[in-house]
Amino acid sequence: MSFKIETSTPAYIYETMADHIEARIMSGELRPGDPLPAERKLAEDYEVSLGTARRATEALRHRGLVVTLRSKGTFVVDANRRDHSGVNATVHHITPDRGELHG
């Protein structure tokens, strides 16, 4: 899937990208427990640099929308478990077969 970032408005590209992914989360396209694509795939899909994709993912973590688990990936957080501090302490494990987050 490919997305084109609008660059005619005065905004950081990573913020625009994070806003778009947030909209996908809020619309239900990306549901709680769903993994985000790897940062390299996000960079390819949005036609941006890897650094921009990393900053967008970081912005989503800061907004409390996703959690990144080392060696596992980045996952959409359940709205009821968001703390908006950039850290989601209620996530304890992931069910490997469905990627669901559990607290």
From TrEMBL:
Signal peptide: none annotated. SUPFAM superfamilies: Winged helix' DNA-binding domain. Keywords: DNA-binding, Transcription, Transcription regulation. Transmembrane segments: none annotated. Residues 11-79 form the HTH gntR-type domain. InterPro entries: Bact_HTH_transcr_reg (IPR050679), Tscrpt_reg_HTH_GntR (IPR000524), WH-like_DNA-bd_sf (IPR036388), WH_DNA-bd_sf (IPR036390). This is Winged helix-turn-helix domain-containing protein. It comes from Amycolatopsis pigmentata.
